[in-house]
Amino acid sequence: MRLANNMKYKVTHTTKYDYDAPVPVCHNVVYLTPRTTNVQSCSRHRLTVNPTPTTHSKRIDYFGNAVSSFSIATSHRLLQITASSSVTIQPRQLPSEGSTLAWESIRNSLATERSAEGLATYQFAFPSPHVPFHPELSDYARESFKPGLPILEAIRSLNERLHADVKYDPKATTISTPIIEVFEHRRGVCQDQAHLMLGCLRALGLAARYVSGYVRTQPAGESPRLVGGDASHAWVSVYCGSAGWIDVDPTNDSFPQTEHITVAWGRDFSDVCPVAGMFIGGGNHQLDVSVDVMAIE
Amino acid sequence: MSRVEVSPFAGESLFAEYAPDDSFYDEIFRGRGEVRASWSDFLSTIASIGRTELMSRWLQAQEDIHETGIAYNIYDQSDGAVRPWELDLLPQLISPEEWSSLSVGLVQRAKLLNRLLADLYGPQESLRRGLLPAEWLFSHPGFRRVFHGQTPPKGTFLHFYAADLARAPDGRWWVVGDRTDAPLGLGYALENRIVTSRMLSNAIRSFNIERLAPFFKTLQGTLRAMAPAHRDNPRIVLLSQGPSGPNYFEDAYLARYLGYTLVEGGDLAVREDHVFLKTLAGLLPVDVILRRLSDEFCDPLELRGTAGLGVPGLLQAARQGHVVVANTLGSSLVESPSLMPFLPGIAREWLGEELALPSVATWWCGQESARTHVLSQFKPGVENQLSLRSAFRLGRRDAISEDRMRQRNTPEITKLLQTEPSRLIAQEAVQRSTTPVWCDSSPTQWHLAMRVFLVAKKHSYHVMPGGLIRLDRNSLPLDLSVLGGRLSKDAWVQATGPVQEVTLLATAKQPVVLRRSGAELPSRVADNLFWFGRRIERAQGTCRLLRPVVARLTGEGESEGSEELAYLIHCLAEQGHIEPGFAVEGMKDRLPTIANILPASVMDAEMLGSLRHSVAEAHRNASLVRDRLSLDSWRIVHHIERLLMRAAQLQESSEPSSKNGKASDSQKGILTPDEVGALIRQPFGLVELDELLGELVVNLSALDGLIGESMTRTSAWRFLELGKRLERSLHVVSLVQSFSSTSDKEEGRVLEAILEVADSIMTYRSRYLAAVSRAAALDLLLTDETNPRSLAYQLVSIADHVAHLPRNESKPLGFPEERIAISLLNNLRMLEVEDLSIGSGGKRTKLERFLQQVDEQLPKLSDLISHRYLIHAGVARQMSGRGGSVS
C-alpha cells in the first residue's frame, strides 16, 4: 500500500448560539482539543470564547481526552466558541489483512489482560448509553465475521456492507434515535453509522471506540471529496491485538490515513459531545456550526 | 383484602391464639404460647398498662401521625390517596449483645463499601487484582466516567449508608440490600421513635433503650467537619427532589430536625465553580450539600439526558473541592446487589477479615460459573429457590424494573439470561422472620425487614441504635423500597446500662454566630408563603360571608330578612361563589335554588376561589414549605384540609340537587318546612355546612394566632402577611362596594350584616349603642387604623411589609410597589368624615372612586412583587443540537 506523506492541518471549529432573549448564565463542557496520539501531534491549540468566560478550567477525562469547562455569568445574546488547532498527522500504518490475528482470539484475550492499559481497552467491549446490546446486530456482523477470519479482513467487510446498506441522510435521525431504528431504516449520519458499527463489533465481544474529530474539507489531488467536511465527523476505532487500534470510517468506507483528525474518543457520542451546555433564559436559540480544515503545505 | 388493625393489644395472654408457623423465626414466640426470654419482661410491662389505656394511647398516636402528615408521598395526587403511615404499637426489641454483633458487621461493611468506592473511582486495584470482575464495573450502567477522579475530604465517599436486614429461620441476620446513593427512611425511623416513645414513655426508660439523638449529632458533626470553608459556621443544605419525589415529607422533616435549609435543584446556582443558594437577598455560599437526590440527577450539565432536577455545574464545583456533597456523587455505584458475591473475597484481601455479616446468597449471571449454576436451577423439574432480579441499580431503582422481572421465565427474560446475562442476578429468598400482627381480629404472622443506618465518623462509622422496621404478610423479597410493606415498627435497642439524654441543641462549647436576618429565603419558598397567606385569608373571608347566609337560609322564614340576604348573596356572586344570575332582581324566587346549590358550589374543587379550592391550594402551598411552618400550623392546615375533604365526600354522596324540580314550585321564595327538611336530610346540606363553617372559622383564626405569635419577623413572615393583608383588603373593599349597589330600604340591617361578616360588630356595639349608622360603620370598616379588620389597618401593614422586603439596591423615590402602597394609604388618610358616603345614586362619591382605585391597584402591587421576587429566575435548559452538528 502506498503511504502518504505527513500532513499538517489548521482546523477552525466555530460554534455560535444566537438567542432571542438575553442569557444571564450559561455553563459549558466542550471536547474541542485534538488528542495527541501515536500518529498525531497538536502543535498549537486555542479555545476562544466570546463573551469571555467568568471561569474556565481544563481537565483530562477518564478516557484521556482534554475537556474544557467554562461558564459565563454576564448577560449575552450571542455565544461564540472557536477552537483553532494546528495538527500534524503521520500516515496510519495499516497492516496487511492476513497478518492480523483471527478476531476470536483477539476477543478472547481482552478479558485476560488486567493491566491499566488492558482494562482501558476492555471497557470498550461493553454496551454504552447510545450503543446498547442488540442480538440483531450480532447476526448482521457475523456475516462479515466468519469464524477464524483475520480481524482486519472482517472489519473491511463489515465496513463495506455498512457503507452500502446505510444511506447517508442528515434528515433521517436525531441524536436520540436509537441505533436499532437506524439499523431498521438504514439511514443516518456519520454518528449513527459509527454507533451502528460499534453495536455490531461489541455484540461480538470486540473492543471498539467512538472517535470524534474532523476530516479534511478539500481533498488533495484527484481523490473524491469526503463526506463529513464542514462539520464534526465521527468514526470508529477497533482494537486489533498486537496491531493496536485501527481506525475505520463507515461513512466513507475507508481506513483513515492522513485525512482524519482525532479530537477525542469515548464509548459513544455521549462521552465526547463536542459542545454541551446549559443556560437560563434566552428564549429560542439558533445554532450555527462551521468547521474548516485547511491543509498546510 | 383483609383489614389490618394495627394491634392495640399486647401482652402474652393477648397472643394466646397466635400459632406461628415454625418454619420461620418468630421474633417474640418460640412456638405457640412460649415467649422468648428476652421479651417476657417487656411484654409483662406492656400488659400491665392495660388494654383500655393502650388502646387510647394508640388512637392518640394515630392522630399524631395523621396530623404531622406522615405519609409516603403525601403529594402524589395522581391517585389522590395519601397513604397514611401505619405504625404498630409494639416496637422490635433488640438485646445489647445482638446489637453489638450486628454493629460490628455493619461498620465493617460500610468501611468496605467506602473503600471500594475510593478504589473504583481511583486506581481500580480491585479490578487489577481480580477481586472484582472488570466485567462487573464495565457492565454497570451507573458507572459514569465523569464521577471518576474525585477526591472528597478525608477520602470519605460514603458518608451515609443504610443496610436492609432480614433474619433467617436459624436466627441469623442477613444483609438483603445495600443503600449507598441517598438512603431513605431515616425520617420515618425518627418519627416512629417519637410517636412510639410517647406511647410507651415509661417502658423506654425502664428498659434502657438507646436514644437516636446522638446519631443525628454525629451526622451534623460529620457534615460540619467536611466544610471546605466557613468552618465555624458552614451553610449546609439538604438537596431534595422536591414535592415530585416520593420522599418529600422525609426531606422536609429531616431538614427541620437537623436545622438545614431544604432546597431543590432550582434553588441552587453554580457561579465560578462555587455553589450558592439563591435567596431574595442574593446569592449565599453553600459549603455542604446533604444529598437526598440520586446522583444520576444531580448535574444535568455533565450527566446529560437526565431530568432537570439537579444543579448544572455541581459536579465541577465538587471536583474542585469548593463544595462537599454527601454522599459523594457516584456513590450509588456500590448499591447494586450483584456486588454481594464479591464482598467476602474483598474483605479477606483488604481487611484480612471474614465478612462479619453475610449477604443473601446471590449469583451474578455475568460470571460463567454462576450462570451455569443458575441455568441448572431453572431447568424444568428442578425445584428452585432462586429469583431473578436486575443486577444493577440506577437512580435509586433497579435498572430492569421489578415488575418486568416478575414475568420471569417468560421468553423475554430467558432470552436476556442467554444474551445479556450480566444484567441479571439470581438470589435466594430469605425466609424472613415473623412477628404477630393483629389482623381481622386475630393475631396473624407477618414478616419483617429492618433498615439500619450508619453515618461516617472520623475513620469509622456510627450505627444508629434503632432502625426502620416494616412488615408484610408475605416473605417475598421486599426490595422495591423500604417504604413498601404495609406496616411499620420502631426498633428498640437495649443498652447495657442507663441511657443519657441527648439533645440536638447546641452545647455551650460550640459558639453560635447569632443570626437574625433569615435572609435565606429561596424565591420558591417566598412564593408559596405569599399564596398560602392569600388563600387562608380568602378561605376565612369566604367562611365569614357564608355563615350569615346559611344562618338566614335555615332560620325562621321571615321575609323582612330578605334585604340583607339579598346583599349577602350579591356579595357571594361578586366574589365568585355563585353564578352572578342569582344576585339580580327576583332573587327571592330563587332562594330555594340557592339553598340547594350552595353546599355543592362551596365544595366545588374545580371552581377557582371556591372554599374547597382555596383550602386545597392553601394546603398545597403549605405542604411545599412545610419546613418553614411550625408543626402546629401545619397540623391546623392539615386538619382544615381533612375537614373539607370529609365534607366534600359527604357532599358528593348527597342526592343530586333538584334544581328545577319541586323546589322551583315554591313561588313564595321562602323555604317551606318540607323543603328545609329535605335539605336537612341530605348528608351534606345547610346544617352540615353551617357546622363546617363554624369549625373552619375557629381553626383559621387559630392559624392566624399562630402566625402572629409564633413566626419570627423574617422575610418569610412578611411574604405570608403580605398575602393575607392583600386578600383581606380586597375582601373589605368588595363588601363595601356591594353595599353601594344595594338599595337603602333596610340600610341598618345590611350594615349590621357587613359588620358581622367583617368581624367588627362587637367593636361597633361597644362604641355606638344606637342603631347602625352609615358613616360610623364605614369608618370602622375603612378608615379606623386601630381595627385589625379595617382597610386602613391592612394598608398600613402592606406599606410596612413592602418597605421592608429584602433589596440589594435602593431607589431614591422608592420602588413601584412601595409607591402604590404609600399612595393608597395616603389617599385613605386624606378622606374626611363627610367623604364616607356611598351609594347616593348617580354620580360616584369620592369614597367609591377610592375603593375602585384600591381594587385596581392592589392586584398590580401583587404582580409587581411577584415579578421582583417570586417568579423563578428560570429553569436551566440544555443547548440543542448534536452539540455542533455532526456529519
Automatic annotation (TrEMBL), chain A:
Residues 182-252 form the Transglutaminase-like domain. SMART domains: TGc. It holds the Pfam family Transglut_core. InterPro entries: Bac_transglu_N, Papain-like_cys_pep_sf, Transglutaminase-like. It comes from the Bacteria. This is Transglutaminase-like domain-containing protein.
Automatic annotation (TrEMBL), chain B:
Transmembrane segments: none annotated. Residues 91-471 form the Circularly permuted ATP-grasp type domain. InterPro entries: ATP-dep_Glu-Cys_Ligase-2, CP_ATPgrasp_2, DUF403. Residues 521-870 form the DUF403 domain. It holds the Pfam family CP_ATPgrasp_2. Signal peptide: none annotated. This is Uncharacterized protein.
